[in-house]
Amino acid sequence: MKKIILMIPLALAVSNSVHASSDNTWYVGARAGASFLTNMDDAVTSVTQIEDTNFAGGVFAGYQVTSWFALETGYTHLGNAKLNNRQGSYESQVADVVTKFSFSATSHLDVYAKAGAFYYDWNAIGSGVDSNDNGWAPTAGAGLEYFINKNLSARLEYQYYNDVGGPDIQFAGLGFAYHWGNSTPNIAPKPVYVDQVTVTTLEVLKLSVPFDFDSSTITKTDTDKLTPFELRLKEQGATKVYVIGHTDDKGSETYNQNLSLKRAQSVADALRQHASIDDTRIIVEGRGELEPVASNNTKEGRAQNRRVDIISPSIDVETVTQVIAE
């Protein structure tokens, strides 16, 4: 006789849990405990007095697919239930294939549930007993698994076998498992970065801007020539630019001093207009007719002396780049 019972497998919300086990993927183990027979009836045996609690034990093996899901198979001898008033007994043994779902309760302890199917062999032994049977039926169980270290764990578990040749058999026992085959890839250590400092020297920039006689107005053409100074002022915060105005010797010394300052200020204003920088980085001076570069006795010489000299001193620029330490 066979009974059909609908079973709802136990499931745990484990997809986001952290598994207590090691990263080993394979395991084997053994378990021992007691089996309990229930739902014995006359269709199985004509006697009613039977030892329904018996010693049981077996072995199992599994593959840890993920940290929370495993596939497991095993063999369990569920005991030899003796008849109290007849010469005979019923022996049951099963081989099961189950899925195992685990949830980490602590860093070393897992709570798990498993469900699957088993093949049973139900043997009537002795006179006055009958109904040998074998076949497939569903099974489910639950337990606790404590990981002693990354290779060894202990289990306390319960498993229900439905319709083992008629009766249902429940198993409760203690087991041990050995784990091996770490599949976790070796993770390279994170690189250590250090600062590499490179010093680049920017050469001195020089430019002389000419002016017409008695004029302090810079032309559009000469304004366009200020671009290298503007870029350096924008890009290098430590840069300073010296703007020094000059004249020829026509006119009084005082007049020429003021004119040279106006010329320098005109160039400085053009730099500030395009660079938009702090005024303290542009130093303006007027030196009048005191520093000619040519003779004031000729028209050509006086034209060369009517000028503004723009100077940006050389500067060392540090560039910091992160590189991997050797």
From TrEMBL:
Residues 198-316 form the OmpA-like domain. GO terms for biological process: monoatomic ion transport. Residues 1-20 form the signal peptide. Keywords: Cell outer membrane, Ion transport, Membrane, Porin, Signal, Transmembrane, Transmembrane beta strand, Transport. One of its GO terms (molecular function) is porin activity. SUPFAM superfamilies: OMPA-like, OmpA-like. This is OmpA family protein. It comes from Photobacterium leiognathi lrivu.4.1.
